[in-house]
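Readers of this paper often ask what the protein records in our data store actually look like. The remainder of this section carries one protein's record, kept here as part of the documentation.

:::
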Amino acid sequence: MRANSHNGDYPFIFGGLGFLSVLGGIFCIVLFFANAKARQNGGHDISGVIYFSLFFIPVGVGLILVRRIAAVLFSIPLGILAVWMIVSSIVNVPFPWLLLNILFGVILLFPSWATWRGWSDLR
């Protein structure tokens, strides 16, 4: 164990991220079923949202159980999204909204940072 290890902090962070991920997956399932009537009547079809739940729920359970593979599967897509958001915002977004997009991109980098810092606490 490292001298400056924060044993206990990172499992709590990953548990919280896992809980939010499972809630996001459940929300996707609710959206899928709530859209059934509109889909049958020729409205917008957002049935592809069910695939997000197939990703969010198992990864969320893995994060709650503090598994390395779940942390990697969660943090890499968010890290890529964050870098894409920051770089494309600098190129395409006007100034006042640029700061908001950069802030949101930095927030999306948090799971990648937590995975990197808490790697030794993951199982």
Summary: The chain has a mean pLDDT of 90. DSSP finds six helices and no strands in the chain.
